Amino acid sequence: MDISKKDKSFLPQSYSTLQQILCELALPKTRDRTQNPRKDVGRCDVIICVMASPDKYLSLLLAGGKKCPGRMMLCLCPSWVCRSPSNTQSGLFSLFILKAVTFEAGGYTYLDTFSSPCRVMYLLEDGSMGPSVGEGLDCLTCSSPQLNTLTEDVLLNYQLFGKGCLPSHAGPLPIIPPEGLVSSHPSLMLHPTQEKEDLEESMEKVISDFLQQPEVQGSDKVLVQLSTSGWGSQESAAVLRRQDREGLLRAAAALVPQMREGEAILLTACYPSIQPLQRTKVKNSLFKEPTVRKEQLFLHISAQVCRTPDDQPQLTQMLCWVDRAESHPRAGPSSLQSLEETLRDWGLSQLDDIISSLEKWAKTALQAIMDHQSELEVTKKGGLHARTDLIGVDFSLGKMDGELLPFLLGIKNVSRGMFSTPNGLLHPQLSSSAIEPLLQTICHHSHCSILAGKTLLFIGAGASKKLGVFVTAKQYGIKSILVCYKERHPAYDYVSEYLVYDYMDHTQDEVHTENIVSLLEKKGLQPDGCLTFICKNTILCALVRAKLGLPGDTVEAISIAKRKSHTQRHLAAVDQCWCHLPAPRQYTVRSENFEDLTDLTRTAESFGFPAVVKQEYGAGSVSVKLVENAQQCEEYVQEMTALKTLDPNGGFASNPMIMEFLEGVKYVVDLAIFEGRLLLAFVSWCGPSVLPYFISSSHLMPSGISQEKEAQIVAAAYQSCLHCGLENGVYNVDLKLTDHGPKLIEINPRAGGNFLPTWIKEVYGVDIFTVAFLIACNIQPQVWTPQPRGYSVGISCPIKQHFRAKEKTPEFDVILNSLNNKGLVKSSMITDVMDYTAPVATLNLSSFSKKREDAINNILLASQMLCIDSEDYPVRYFLEPFM
To answer: Where does the record place the ATP-grasp domain (predicted)?
Structure first.
């Protein structure tokens, strides 16, 4: 029911403001559910608390309600929250919500209370609700009063940005600089003065020196202000004509009584803004328009930049507004509009170059602020977990020496709200790109708060390429228990408990399960979840989970997915009566395993050639080969059988199997499912395989194909997993898109290995390891498939070509390190393969760029410098499909 008029007295005034805005946006008014306190919120849920005026962050709240329904909460007064000593971090406090306006999907809002207070995992406050509650919390907080002050300290910002040579209005002149300045802006003049009396005597000379700087000559105005007054301050800042020396002196003198210890008076040159180009008018006396005196304009540009989950600056939106030239250079926005549209209307060319330049400097600003904050003491940050996740960077565009340049107008901290609110609310189609990156960061930080202190059991460490799993777990404060067959693995340094146990003979997985559980009991270890990133260990992991009573997929589901021919037969037999999705049997291909050569001959004749021979329980494309006739098929099966007898403890009793060869393009889908619901999916495109062993050659993420085809591929991967019983986990699915739709190659019932987790983090900002950790603990991750930030392109170099390139290029390692250090490529190697003839790729080179062609060109250049490109391994041929 709605809140009645007589019951509104107990609600703050901001509640009425919220209802008015909801009404203007044609959204339902807030419903009162306080008579039935919510019971569906636990202490391990993602809970995002916003303590601010609702108009400042409504676009974020509505987006949060859509992506994290029931978990985005607005608290309108301090009595709606309480603090309690933290159970996870000694000396800190947890913040709990007693009452909140909860945002749900579809723009629905509810006034809620809770059967037990729900713990906040991320706090955003603007100070309008009274004294800050964020200091000393065990969860991450978006800024703090202390960080807000630092963010808007003009002189400090000039110092920080000087390291990146951020353009300003020629640079300020601090007449009394505070102590402890470690660096200065390239055009920053310092005039040290110890006493105010000395300042008054020397002020005239200082101003004269400032006005004589060459950089100042092109300015038309000078801004006079106190260094800590803030970028947006107009009350304590005077703007005068550059020629008005007496006025500048009076303005500076008027600020002297207001100065506090550590403050400075700043003079900043202000340059005129660019002007619209004159349009050619119709020269016809009959329709001639009257001549109107053109007034001078000032173009303000506001770039919104947020911190990504991996602590990188990301531009989320670029807006602008136009004022008269006589307006204050740091005036607030009038009606916001698109920068691209404005520059186009003004007749400016080379828009991409202008916008790229603005983006570069805006990101430089946030990077400088993040670097500075990382070195601050806790007291100066206002809390152990306080950090700046969002800023606005204001620019103007002017000309210097005939060159169009951006000039810094100011920095706005998060307490000023979302700069995209008017645009985002009135034009929802433009909102997602501006809001979702910040929301993604907030959810990731919430996940980190939830995972801190959890205990996870890992079955197997894998090759060196899997080390990132344990590095990530330690980074998030997870206590890792690793069961490994090696006496010492590199992961040893990143785990809390290292249990040595040989589980490599997977024909004895039931016995291994009993022994592993016994080891845990002897040490008194009780994990919250159990998982593996090693394909061979997935069934063993499922058995251990079942024995310990931990959440996750059943042994039966993992067994169906792990055994390749059984996967195909199982899906072909699924009787689905739903009409909204294709039947799973449409994704299957003919495949069969066999016990002996007699069965092989009969099966091969029925399949026809070419065909694919592989191991029933194989992993990583090992032992997969294309055979073109019955003789090749028989010879290769004999070879596989002989190798298996030499290694009786190599894993499963894995018989060879044969599968029909599929024509078409191969795609890989990494997807996460929780309680049967698809959370996210990432599709990558695989270039031509290196035959006959199907060694991966090249890769592209995102796939670049049409949304319709990508949707078909994702639906096929999701349905295949779901109908095999895989309902809780992160999975890696190989498919081919044929002339008659997507066809399943195989399901790997664990997260993708090698370079894919790194690519997903780089392209989409999603840490797939974190998603797997949360699901293993039966916690729903608040994740989705965001818009890609660029393209990752890579090649996988077979071991033979890798060794040959190293022999041909003595400086191979030096060149590779140089390419990595310059950011041209990223490389990863498999170092534990010594067989020169093995059909495996040991070197992966990848490049990330906003433009696909730039990433491809980087790989081509690197492969030539490293002598990887050759007639035997033509890199351009493998990359050509992506061009």
So the answer is: 575-777
Nearest CA to 495 out of 516, 479, 519, 477 is that of 479
Q: What are phi and psi of 356, to 5 degrees?
A: -60, -40
Q: How many domains does the chain have?
A: 4
pLDDT tier at 451, thresholds 50, 70, 90: very high
Q: Are 455 and 477 in contact (CB under 8 A)?
A: no
Structure tokens at 303: 């770039």
* Count of other CB atoms within 10 angstroms of residue 3: 18
Read off the tokens for 458. Answer: 């890992």
Structure confidence by residue, pLDDT tens digits, 739-787: 989 999 999 998 877 789 999 999 999 999 999 999 999 999 999 999 9
Residues 567 and 658 in one domain: yes
Is 469 in contact with 533 (CB distance < 8 Å)?
yes
Examine the domain organization and report whether 381 and 490 are in the same domain.
Answer: no
Alpha carbons 694 and 685: distance in angstroms, whole number: 15
In this structure, what CATH number is given to the domain that contains residue 478?
Answer: 3.40.50.20
Residue 197 backbone dihedrals phi, psi, to 5 degrees: -65, -40
E strands in 687-790: 698-701, 729-738, 741-748
Mean pLDDT of 713-720: 95
More confident residue, 53 or 754: 53
Q: Please name which of 394, 320, 475, 434 lies closest in space to residue 152, comparing C-alpha atoms.
A: 394
Residues 6+ apart with CB under 8 A from 428: none
Considering the domain architecture, whether residues 604 and 687 belong to the same structural domain is answered as: yes
Of 386, 412, 438, which residue sits at a domain end? 412
Average pLDDT over residues 369-393: 91
What is the mean pLDDT of the segment spanning 698-709? 94
Three-state SS string over 68-111 comes to CCCCEEECCCHHHEEEEECCCCCCCEEEEEEEEEEECHHHCEEE
92 and 180 assigned to the same domain: no
DSSP 489-502: -GGGGG-SEEEE--
Q: Which residues pair with 399 in a beta bridge?
A: 404
Which amino acid is located at 84 in the chain?
A: S
Is the predicted pLDDT of residue 354 greater than 60, yes or no? Answer: yes
Helix residue ranges, H only, 838-881: 852-865, 875-879
CA–CA separation, 121 vs 106, rounded Å? 23
Confidence at residue 166, expressed as pLDDT on a 0 to 100 scale: 44
CA dist 167 and 715 (Å) reads 49
- Tokens 């344990």 sit on residue: 470
What is the DSSP pairing of strand 122-125 with strand 140-142? Answer: parallel
Token output for 200: 């008054």
pLDDT higher at 185 or 198: 198
What range defines the domain where residue 164 resides?
Answer: 144-275+296-412
pLDDT of residue 178: 40
* Average of per-residue pLDDT across 128-143: 88
Q: Is the pLDDT of residue 171 over 50?
A: no
Scan for tokens 């400097």, then name that residue: 361
Residue 700 and residue 830 in one domain: yes
CA 616 to chain centre: 36
Which residues have C-beta within 8 Å of that of residue 824, sequence separation ≥ 6?
847, 858, 861, 862
Q: Tokens 């090696």 appear where?
A: 486
pLDDT value at 190 more than 60: no
CA 814 from centre of chain? 31
Domain closes at, from 526, 550, 574: 550
- 276: preceding bond cis by omega (within 30 degrees): no
**CB neighbours of residue 363 within 10 Å:** 18
No. of helices (H) and no. of strands (E), the chain: 25, 33
Least confident of 176-190, 510-524, 860-874: 176-190
Residue 734 confidence (pLDDT): 94
* 738 vs 319: which has the higher pLDDT: 738
**Pairing label, strands 81-85, 93-103:** antiparallel
